[in-house]
Amino acid sequence: MKISASIYSNKTDLLENTIKNLHLNGADMFHVDCNDDIGVFNDFKTIRALSNKPIDLHIITPDPEKYFPYIKKEKPDYVTFQFEEILGKLQLPKTPAKYGLAITSNTSIDVFDEYAECFSFILIMATTPGKSGGQFNKENFEKIRAFKRRYPEKAVHVDGGVNAEVSFILRNMGVDVAVSGSYLFNETHVGTALLNLKANETHSTYCVKDFMHNKNEIPLLIYENCQLKDILNSIETGKMGFTILADKTGKLEGLISNADVRKGLLKHIEDLNKVNINDVMNRTPVTINENTTVKEMLEFIRNKKFPISYMPVLDNNEKVSGALTFFNLIKGEL
């Protein structure tokens, strides 16, 4: 996941020093908030003189067309328009920039449908647009998952309340870019803050249930009713590499992964007709409670002597409430 540093969040230093510091400490791009202020384009020259990293422009205005000449001239790498401010259908200028649509927490991802052909990403505003220092609204975790299911080929950018813990969650969810401002400049050293955003995790505010795949989003079968064919179809259509089995009350019976299926087949390789559900089911998979904090979850995983790619999430009654997967996190760290 790339970090787009919100340059105007630094209220205590000159822009030149801010750009130099961010460039030297590994920021991936520079986020420029344009709150209906053409004057921000004057800063492009300063940025480009000090760094060759991409400029990520976020325009908040009811009249985006007046900015088109400046976009064509200054050529930002990313340009995002705030949906709630737009009056009428937006016609984009032809430039090399990647265009995105920004929405607030209260706006449905459905509004992206109208722009899907011309926008390459969505920017989900997890706090108030254009203001620094707010707390991440956890309802946006579900919005991110929903958007990625609907538009798997589109990128997801997130802005607002991104600290070390939120960054870890977003990396695990496969978010492409996170915008960070206050967190970067409130830390003692920008380099430490960027390292936390890209690789580390500190204190916990969020629980597993805040960002897990919910029960209706995972491959899940009722054990009493399913056959081996049902399990194979569930693994195939679920596209997560596993399916979870529960009893009629929702309590976990076991988990069947691609690896479990291979083991079952090898066990009866001379006569595959003998393979049954018990041959392929792991009745004691690693699980985690939905109220576990991020910090507790990481400690739990670190203490395991084998890698964990996914695991069922249970509520306090041992019923399946969702699942965690770590594929995006692994990909994002490469």
Could you tell me the CATH topology label of the largest domain.
TIM Barrel
Number of helices: 13
CATH C-level class of the largest domain: Alpha Beta
- Uncertain regions spanning at least 5 consecutive residues: none
Structural class: alpha/beta
Strand order of the largest sheet: 1-2-3-4-5-6-7-8
Q: Please give the alpha-carbon distance between the first and last residues.
A: 10 Å
Taken from the alpha-carbon principal axes, the silhouette is elongated
Can you summarize this structure?
This protein has helices at residues 15-24, 42-50, 68-74, 139-150, 164-173, 182-186, 190-198, 208-211, 228-238, 258-267, 277-280, 294-302, 327-332, and strands at residues 2-6, 29-34, 55-59, 78-82, 98-104, 121-125, 155-159, 177-180, 213-214, 220-222, 242-246, 252-257, 288-289, 310-314, 320-325. By secondary structure, the protein is α/β, with parallel strands linked by helices.
Structure description:
This protein is of the alpha/beta class. It has 2 domains: 2-206, TIM Barrel (Alpha-Beta Barrel), CATH 3.20.20; 213-332, CBS-domain, CATH 3.10.580. 32% of the residues lie in helices and 21% in strands. The protein is built from 13 helices and 15 strands. It has helices at residues 15-24, 42-50, 68-74, 139-150, 164-173, 182-186, 190-198, 208-211, 228-238, 258-267, 277-280, 294-302, 327-332, and strands at residues 2-6, 29-34, 55-59, 78-82, 98-104, 121-125, 155-159, 177-180, 213-214, 220-222, 242-246, 252-257, 288-289, 310-314, 320-325. It has an 8-stranded parallel beta barrel. Strands 9-15-14-13 form a 4-stranded mixed beta sheet. Strand 2, helix 2 (42-50) and strand 3 (55-59) form a beta-alpha-beta unit. Helix 1 (15-24) packs parallel to helix 2 and helix 5 (164-173) packs parallel to helix 7. The longest helix has 12 residues, at 139-150. The chain is elongated, with a radius of gyration of 23 Å. The termini are close together.
